[in-house]
Amino acid sequence: MFNFSQGYSVYDLLEMYKNLQAPVHEFVENSIDFFQGSALPVSTTQFGRAVLENLDALNDLSMIGEHPGFHIKETICDDAPTKISEEILAERSFCNLLHFKKVGKEDRKEPRILIFAPMAGHYATLLRGTVEGLLPYADIYITDWKSASAVPLSEGGFDLEDYISYAIDFMRDLSEDGPLDVLAVCQPCVPVLAATARMAMDDVKSGPANLILMGGPVDARICSTEVNKMAEEHTSEWFTNNLITLVPHNYPGAMRAVYPGYLQLAGFLSMNMPRHLESAARLYRNIALGSEDDTDMIADFYKEYFAVMDLAAEFYIQTIDKVFKEYALAKGTLEYRGERIDLSAIKNTRILAIEGEKDDIAGVGQTKAALKLCKNVPASKKEYYMQKNVGHYGIFNGSRYRKEVVPKILKFIG
Asked: Which pTM was predicted?
């Protein structure tokens, strides 16, 4: 049974914060509009630009929990700017399947890549850079997960098996139009690999042509991180009693049991607090001095980092139990709809495992384990790539991702 007494008061504190920030948000929005559209000379000065940057940063802090949107308007295709139309291909209770359509390039021959975004406390927009890096070269789709607090109780629950079902459905539907490549980033590596195996168990020829697994806990026993240790050191009951809460009545998902995204955010921040404080200090120093050196990059990262979503309680607890306590996929005990997942059923899908040298969330070797577990995939169809000098987020975002990881993915999928 869920014990909501402690978590509910914490959720209420967040609601109080957001309510108090509402007038601040309105004031800041009006001030930003004034400075951006003002004919006053001060608005074009270094001081004016610094004020605008500070207002923008303050605005971000008043919008915790809101979906930021992808806002990808164009890309470079065939050395020319190409407009992007964001379309919803499928609407499910807990997820929208998005397509970034290249306007006027519908007949262009290019790989089709379905990106599975993490359901781990952040919106799929955390992968905006991942999408932008691949868009010039591929037709991109992504799972845009919804915050559980926005899903009415009447829509039912969502657990790890439901994630696998969504993955199977999306892969099958998109495969009807031709070969499909799949990219799973972080948390989805386990359910997407399981979904690929489930499809192969039904028909060895089904499933994606290429599967790229990035920084995911396929075997969390390897190179244990603080994320793993926390799961190992506490019982499932501890997680339920201390981290699960009910959604307040003023949300569409009222009375749904959730793991609040802001708790996940607090956990990630605490793991890397010195680095986050250093980045924040550098950001505000650059704003004050009018320097553009890495200011936009840092600001954009934290704008996404603070946009958090709630997870369905059953999904969160099952993930803790199956992935970080039982290591079920790695041990061959993970079940889907009453039948064990058999990774040896995967034979035709090519697999690329990508890890970051300094990843402190999915330790080095956890993703690579998939190559050994999929024993019936020929060695010629399996590759491993270690990206030097990056942590977890550097695998799928930033300059090294664009310059080194993207070319590796494109070369692999051919």
From this structure: 0.82
Angle between helices 261-271 and 226-233 (to 10 degrees): 120
Query: Would you call 156 exposed, middle or buried from its count of C-beta atoms within 10 A (0-12, 13-18, 19+)?
Result: exposed
117-131 average pLDDT score: 92
Q: Which two tokens stand for residue 69?
A: 């949107």
The rounded distance, in Å, linking the Cα atoms of 146 and 119 is 9
* Residue 268: burial class (beta carbons within 10 Å; 0-12, 13-18, 19+): buried
Beta bridge partners of 246: 257
Q: What percentage of the chain carries pLDDT values higher than 70?
A: 74
| Partner residues linked to 122 by β-bridges | 308
Q: What is the mean pLDDT of the chain?
A: 84
Mean pLDDT of 312-316: 96
Report yes or no: 46 and 74 within 8 Å, Cβ to Cβ.
no
> How many Cβ atoms are within 10 Å of 374's Cβ, its own excluded?
24
Which residues are paired to 85 by β-bridges?
101
Contact residues for 287 (Cβ-Cβ < 8 A; gap 6+)? 50, 53, 54, 57, 295
Q: Which residue has the tokens 């997870």?
A: 311
Instruction: Provide the pLDDT for residue 68.
Output: 83
Q: What is the pLDDT of residues 46-80, one digit of tens each?
A: 555 555 555 555 555 444 557 889 999 999 998 89
**Element (DSSP H or E) covering residue 212:** strand 210-214
Determine the Cα–Cα distance for residues 326 and 344; give it in Å rounded to an integer.
19
pLDDT, position 279: 46
Euclidean distance between CA atoms 108 and 138, whole angstroms:
10
348 burial level (CB within 10 Å; 0-12, 13-18, 19+): middle
237 conformational bin, left if phi > 0, alpha if psi -120 to 50, beta if neither: alpha
Cβ 302 vs Cβ 56: under 8 Å: no
Give residue-wise pLDDT tens across range 167-205: 999 999 999 999 999 999 999 999 999 999 999 999 878
Who's near 88: CB < 8 A, 6+ residues apart?
A: 96, 97, 98, 99
The 3-state secondary structure of 189-200 reads HHHHHHHHHHHH
In the chain, the percentage of residues whose pLDDT exceeds 90 is 61
